[in-house]
Amino acid sequence: MTAGALLGEHVGCAESHIRGALENWDAANLPRCEECCELLRGAIVELEGAWRSALEGAPASVPVAKRLYQLRADIGVMIRLVDASTAFCRGLALRIGAAGDEVAAGTRTAPSVWSQREA
């Protein structure tokens, strides 16, 4: 396999992992957020492989270079999004005393300290 073909394969796999993460992401579902983490790890591995291929002399055209930079940006955004969702799910579960991985949409949390009407 040529260096250029290897570079293209890494880019394609990274894009596939990111698409999978976007399709699986659900902000209120901890197991799906964890699936996204695994897919993003795979995307990072592929992106690192693509960068190595490019550094080792694989011809990276301008469109391929733009895809690499866009992939890096997309992965960064997805990581922050999944991290925030995971923290929110875990924090909400702790606050309401939930033992499961998912918090039902209609679940009422503890009364707010700011409003006596809720108490």
Helix amount, in percent?
A: 55-70%
Query: How many runs of DSSP E, i.e. beta strands?
Result: 0
Question: Distance N terminus to C terminus?
Answer: 68 Å
Following the backbone from N to C, one meets helices and strands in this order, namely HHH
DSSP helix count?
A: 3
Count the domains.
1
Give the C-alpha Rg.
20 Å
Bulk shape: elongated
| Helix and strand composition category | mainly alpha
**Low-pLDDT residue spans:** 107-119
Task: Describe the sheet with the most strands.
Answer: none
What is the beta-strand fraction?
under 5%
Report the average pLDDT across residues.
Answer: 79
Q: Can you characterise this structure?
A:
It is elongated and about 55 Å long. The protein has one domain (3-118). Residues 107-119 have low confidence and may be disordered. Helices cover 70% and strands 0% of the residues. It is an all-alpha fold and 119 residues long. Helix 2 packs antiparallel against helix 3. The termini are far apart. The chain has three helices and no strands.
